[in-house]
Amino acid sequence: MNTVSLPVIIQGGMGAGVSSWSLANAVSRAGQLGVVSGTALDVILARRLQVGDPGGHMRRALSHFPIPGVAQRIIDRYFIDGGKGEDASFKSKPMPAQKPSRQLEELLVAANFVEVFLAKEGHDGLVGVNFLEKIQIPNLPSIFGSMLAGVSHILMGAGIPKAIPGILDRLAKGESVELRIDVAGSESGEEHFSEFDPQAFCDGEMPEIGRPDFLAIISSATLANMLQRKSSGKVNGFIIEGPTAGGHNAPPRGKMQLSVEGEPIYGNRDVCDLSAMRDLGVPFWLAGSYAEPERVREALEQGAAGVQVGTAFAYCKESGLSPELIEKTLIMSKAGKAEIFTDPVASPTGFPFKVLKMATTHSDQDVYENRSRICDLGYLRHAYKKENGKVGWRCPSEPIEDYLKKGGNIEDTVGRKCVCNSLMANIDLGQVQKDGTHELPMITSGDDVAGIARFLKPDADSYSAVDVIEYLLKE
Question: What is the fold of 9-322+455-473?
Fold first, then answer.
C-alpha cells in the first residue's frame, strides 16, 4: 500500500459529484482516505464552467494541467463569465464513444485531473478516486487524468475489474492500454476494446507519474479470491460492500426474489465470509451501515483494516449534494421519515439501486412518469452489435421506440429511470431540456440515511466531515 499506516476510514465514492473534491479534501486533511467520484466528471467540469466557475476553482486547477493547450481549449469552449441564465440549457459535450474524439479525451483527462488536484490541494494526505466498472468507455482516459494529478488509490466496483491493476502498471510506465468492452450480440471469441495511448495524448512528452494502489469493491470472498488470482496486476486491497451500502448493490446470490414492497431479498448467502478474506492476506475494509464507533471497532476486531462510510459523508456540508437536498434529508431524518427503497430495476445497469424516498424527485414513480424520456448523457448506455457489424449504443431508459428500433426488448424498459440526468440535478447541475423542463433529482443513499441526524450537534442544522470522523473514532 501507499502508506505504512492504513486509513481506518475510507470515505465512500457516492453519486456523481457528491463525493466532491471539497469533501475528499476535508477527509484527507483529517488523516483518512478521501475519495472523489470519477463518474461523469467530464460533464460536471463542463457544467461547472458554464455556471461561471464559482470561486474560480476549476480554472485554478486547470492552470496546473501539464499538457499545453488542453486547459485553454476547455475554458474557451465551456466557460461563461457570470454563468448561464437559470432557464438556459447547458451546452452539450460529446457522448461517450468506443473511439472518443480528441475533444472528449481532453475533457475526460482534464476533468479527472481537476477533481483530484483540488482534493489534494493544501495537504499531503491520501486521495482516491472511485470508478464504476460498468461505465467502461470513459475509464481509461479518466484513470490517466487522475494519475496525472497524483491520485494515491483507484477504487472500482459494479463489475469485475480484473483488467484494471495491469492498466495502472502500464499507464505508470507511459504505455498504451486497452480495456475490453462488453458488446451484446457479439459472436463467440469476438472481442471489442477501448484504447488509450498516454504518449500520444501528451504529444510524446508525458510527465512522470506513479502507480496508485488498487482497491477492488466486492461483495463476496469468492470474487476477491478470483480477482487476487486472475487480475492483470496486483490488487492492493478490497472493500466489501454489504447490501445496505448506498448506490448500486450487487444482486442477491441465486434467483432474484422480491419482498412485498418490491425490493430484492438478501439472505445468508450474501454475507461475505470474513475468515476467507483474512486468509487472502490482503487488507480489506467493510462497508454498509458501519457508521457507528462500535461497528468500526467490530470491523477491526474481525481483521479488517477499517471501514468505508458513504451516507454519513453525503449529507455533511462539504458534500457536493445540493444544500437544499441536504437540508430536506436532515429534516426527514430528525423526524424519523428518511426511508430507502432498493429499486431492482431503476438503474439501466441492471444492478439494484438504492434510492431515497422524497417528494418532487424521481424516486416518486408518478413524478417520473411525467418526464419525457431522453438519453443525452449516455454514461449507462449498453453497447450492442448492429446488423452491419458495427457497435451501436442503447439505453433501457431512452425513448422506448428508439430502444426497440435498436433491437432492445420492451421488458428491459419497464421501470427504468434516467439515473444520469437525475444525478446531475442532485448536485445543482441539472439540465434544462428544450421544452423548458428542469431535470429533477433522484438521491441515492445507504440505509443509514435514516439516522444521519445523529451527527448534528445540539442546535446545529448542519455537520462537517470532521464531525463524522470524530464520531466514528471515539472510544
Answer: TIM Barrel (3.20.20)
